[in-house]
């Protein structure tokens, strides 16, 4: 089934789990996500960055909507890091059930105004909205970008932001970064900030840059109110490592011969993350 983000995340705090949002780049990643979710009876979020949307094209999402609507497992089709109202409208027109409007690099009042406009448009047609306050770091290994110096989310400002915009979920900055951390680079997650934000807000919180962070900190974040965790690089790294391995020793050219093993490699990462987030088998709650 295909549901809104608000509906998908509704039971996460009460039951103490988070749902993985996996960035897709083509139909192979859709297969990996949907097949693993169905095999383990686990809710999941299909996340699409605007650059991925450009690559895939609008018509691709007819296929995504069809396979998810027919599934017994709940899915959300989500726009990741939409930077403009145009991005939001395009996603809604393509049948997305959730959108993110990312005004985190704007001055605070401009972020509030942009997010409030996105909420007004999306809520009118039953689409959920994720906002962002604070900035996510970057490792230089992801197309999703980020900043070199993280601006941590201010808990009091987060409370004001949610009250004034009406967002359904909020991405917070506690020290994570997009991409795979280079050797020697360690994230410094500020769990006390997350704890204070969670104490002020009742909506599910979102952790971006979930790849390559210590499992213990990710698991702790779930206990502190994080209901959605974004995964992209870990899954794609495993997939393309397997592609390189196969093409390095074989001269095959048929996709049906080359891609099954990479799909399985991606599924292994997805399976591991679902278990880490505590979402495995939670489709029974819907």
Rg is 18 Å
Q: What form results from the Cα inertia axes?
A: globular
CATH homology-level superfamily:
Aldolase class I
| Record field, number of beta strands | 10
- SS content category: alpha/beta
> Uncertain segments of ≥5 residues (pLDDT<50)?
137-148, 178-183
Task: List the total number of helices.
Answer: 13
Query: Helical proportion?
Result: 40-55%
The first-to-last residue Cα distance is 10 Å
Mean pLDDT: 90
**CATH third-level topology:** TIM Barrel
Mind explaining what this structure looks like?
This protein has 13 helices and ten strands. It has helices at residues 5-9, 12-15, 27-40, 50-56, 60-69, 85-93, 108-123, 155-165, 191-200, 215-223, 233-249, 255-258, 260-277, and strands at residues 19-23, 44-48, 75-82, 98-101, 128-133, 137-138, 169-172, 177-178, 205-207, 226-231. Helix 3 links the parallel strand 1 and strand 2. The longest helix has 18 residues, at 260-277. It is globular. It starts with a helix and ends in a 9-residue tail after the last helix.
């Amino acid at each position: 089934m295909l549901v809104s983000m608000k509906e998908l995340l509704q039971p996460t705090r009460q039951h103490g789990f988070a749902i993985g949002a996996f960035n897709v780049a083509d139909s192979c990643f859709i297969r990996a996500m949907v097949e693993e979710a169905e095999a383990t009876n686990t809710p999941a979020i299909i996340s699409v960055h605007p650059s991925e949307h450009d690559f895939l094209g609008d018509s691709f999402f007819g296929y995504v909507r069809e396979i998810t609507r027919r599934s017994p497992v709940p899915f959300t089709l989500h726009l990741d890091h939409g930077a403009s109202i145009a991005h939001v409208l395009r996603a809604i027109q393509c049948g997305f059930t959730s959108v993110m409007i990312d005004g985190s690099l704007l001055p605070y009042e401009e972020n509030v105004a942009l997010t409030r406009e996105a909420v007004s448009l999306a809520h009118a047609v039953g689409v959920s909205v994720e906002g962002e306050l604070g900035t996510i770091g970057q490792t230089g290994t992801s197309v999703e970008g980020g900043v070199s110096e993280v601006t941590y989310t201010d808990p009091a400002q987060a409370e004001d932001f949610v009250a004034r915009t009406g967002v359904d979920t909020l991405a917070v900055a506690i020290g994570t970064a997009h991409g795979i951390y280079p050797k020697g680079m360690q994230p410094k997650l500020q769990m006390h900030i997350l704890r204070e934000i969670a104490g002020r807000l009742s909506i599910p919180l979102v952790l971006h840059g979930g790849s390559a962070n210590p499992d213990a900190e990710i698991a702790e974040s779930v206990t502190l109110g994080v209901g959605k965790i974004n995964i992209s690089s870990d899954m794609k790294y495993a997939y393309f490592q397997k592609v390189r391995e196969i093409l390095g020793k074989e001269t095959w050219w048929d996709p049906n011969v080359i891609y099954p093993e990479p799909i399985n490699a991606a599924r292994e990462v997805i399976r591991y993350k679902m278990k880490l987030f505590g979402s495995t088998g939670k489709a029974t709650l819907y």
